Fold each of these.
Amino acid sequence: MATDKYESVLIRFNGKNYSAWAFHFKIFVKGKDLWGHIDGSKPAPDKDKEKDEHAKWEVKDAQIMAWILGSVDPNIILNLQPFKTAAEMWNYLKKLYSQHNTARRFQLEHELATIQQGSLSISDFYSSFMNLWAEYTDIVYANLPPEGLSSVQLVHETTKKDQFLMKLRSEFESTRSSLMNREPVPSLDVCLNALFREEQRIQFQWLM
């Protein structure tokens, strides 16, 4: 089934986006009711005493291993060959890559601070900006207690909108100013709709 293919619904791990990949992969496996293979709550049955159950467990574990292998870049797959269970693969990746989150967060903060629309369309720039933002917030949110998460997310929604609008080309200045001067300032989705309309208007003018 298509829903059993990890790569069809989630992101690929490239060695730099561990936090985002791990977050999505965990949700995916939990949705299949197989997370116990990773966290140890569903250990392998005794092979000698429960032969049939052990065989079924191995099939499920192999499925998770296939999802891991199917969701990482080819150069990472080679490093996973020595491991015989999904938990071993997961723990190896976690140990090797999660420690780099601080450096990656700093890099993402720099990229978010310097990114500009340049020659990109509104749609392409939005995609580039949101990819950076999503990875950045995945790293930040991973270390927050649940009780404080919603407050930070609320602040980040405003910051995300402001950052995106500030990075636009000068030809969108009038639209940006109009949006920022509204009370309250519209959501990012509403801002995007206004920017798409302005972009179409500008493109139409060039054709005249």
Amino acid sequence: MKIKTSLSIAAALSIVLLSACSSSSESSDTIAASSTTDTAATSSSSSTDTTDVVKAASWNPTIKISYTDGSINFQPDGIPNHERDAYYAVPNAGVVVPDANTANIIKDPTSAQTYSFDIPSVPTFSSATTKTSLGSIGVMISGAVLYNPYEGDGTTVAMANNFTITNAAGITASFVDKCAGHPTPGMNGTGGAYHYHGLPNCV
């Protein structure tokens, strides 16, 4: 049934996004999500095994998914299965948070990355709020990873800071594309790592 499938996909997305722990911004990430939380911060509601829901979802076939007792491992290459922009506006050298005056245009540098996410198959709800770090915090069903909302300074919301520029050759590019994502331009050895800063409407 279409409704049942949609619910399964939505549930699977929630599992991966809410259960993944934060990581560094390196292109090779190993992320382990703990299946236990502090007793005082844990809801008394019962937990559900999500393995069947994850198996039923239509994941990007490039994602390697394996199942063990109590855990699901996701190994995406970070390249989404939807169209990306041909060009992106990226910060000039030394600029952490760019704007229309401190950015330049490059061809889409997106390239395959190496990620490994261990997600508990029986997630436990926690009432405690945990602040994420920069870098990947989960994998989306498209195969690309999710970052937190902020740019490199940890305070500027990427989606609120979006802009579009046109260069001398007449090429126009945006900082964040219509799918709420963009690739890293090559800083700190992480060039080409496409990622989302918000909920992508094209996934």
Amino acid sequence: MENQPQATTHQGLKTTLIGILFSAFLAILKAVGGIFGHSFALIADAIESTADIFTSTMLWLGLKWSSKPADHNHPYGHGKAEALVAIGIALALCAAAILIGRESINNIQSPHKSPAPYTLIILLVVIVTKELLYRFVHKTGLEANSEAVKADAFHHRSDAITSGAAFIGVTIGIVGGKGYEVADDWAALLAAAIILINAYKIFRPAIGELLDEELDPALNRRVAQLAGEIPAVVKVQKCHTRKMGVMNHADMHIWVDKNMTVEQGHVVAHAVKDNIQQHLPQFIDVMIHVEPTDAVD
């Protein structure tokens, strides 16, 4: 039977593989449609989908890496590999945005044909598919408590948004006719800006995880509350939480009766840990320092 980290990682791997397959299909569809349909916005979308394949592959490898058990050199496990992968995804998105933006500016300055009408059908298919993928992958990311999987989901959402921008640009280019051809390229430029924004949204929580940023204050309070539910616990202080991969860690000080034996204090600490993990199973470890009551400031 799989434990929770293994189960959530398996779920993330399965979701990622599905995303890779869909992204590969859509990248080919958009590239062919963009080249033959004279739409750089669609070609830009194809570039973004190709980046999807690359980053999703990175995610798949990262999930495999982060799921490795703790060893002699990594006693706390390999969970932070997920955050590294999320940062890699963000950087790849930035690179794609810069490439798309540069080519868009070049195309705006150069006259070219209006996009073919059938490119709109391709874009509609892409928008619907990518939005459905976003919802599916994001749901998995939330269930697995995985920043990397959630980052991959936002990548699908950014693809849907850029396709939406492309749809608007292509529509203007087709309906407007001569003189409006560059609307397609302006749409691609807008898509590049949206991609950069999404890259930041992915980067920010990932760097926070790498730097052991405190988790949500409400979650901290809940952890402290659960610790305080144990009758022998007089006081809870210095409760800190952090994320490592798909799981969380907590550290805290608890105060108990100074007349307790070491063994009794140990039993109380275990009761605190068990209570927290029973109610919040995403906490894979809880480090507890036991203090005597007369040590309270």
